[in-house]
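Handoff note, outgoing to incoming analyst
You'll be picking up this chain. Sequence as last confirmed:
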Amino acid sequence: MQFRRLMLATALVGGSAALATFAMAAGDPQRGSVIAKRWCASCHVVTSDQTSASADAPSFFDIAKRRTDKKKLGNFLMDPHPPMPDMHLSRKEIDDIVSYIRSLDPRPQPPAEPDSKDKELPKNG
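Most recent structure output, in case you need it:
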């Protein structure tokens, strides 16, 4: 009986950790908005009520309309290049900003693409 409880507890903890990891990977658009207002608004227009920014930097709305892939946008933010400063954002902050940018696109999000691993499965027989 004690073994069953231990196994159940282990499964629950493992499942909770997996859900927490998934939630963290998804990014939080509300936190991304706060980060963007603090770090990005001096150059980019990041909200609809913002009145000024650099003419050379695209607005977050324009970036969202480009349908930039989450991974590509995240990689760009991880390794910025001039004139964009390196703000040393954490992976979580980057995920939050990416989620915020993608939330600005009024069009429905395209369905998630399956991993390429799933496409090339060996055939039996």
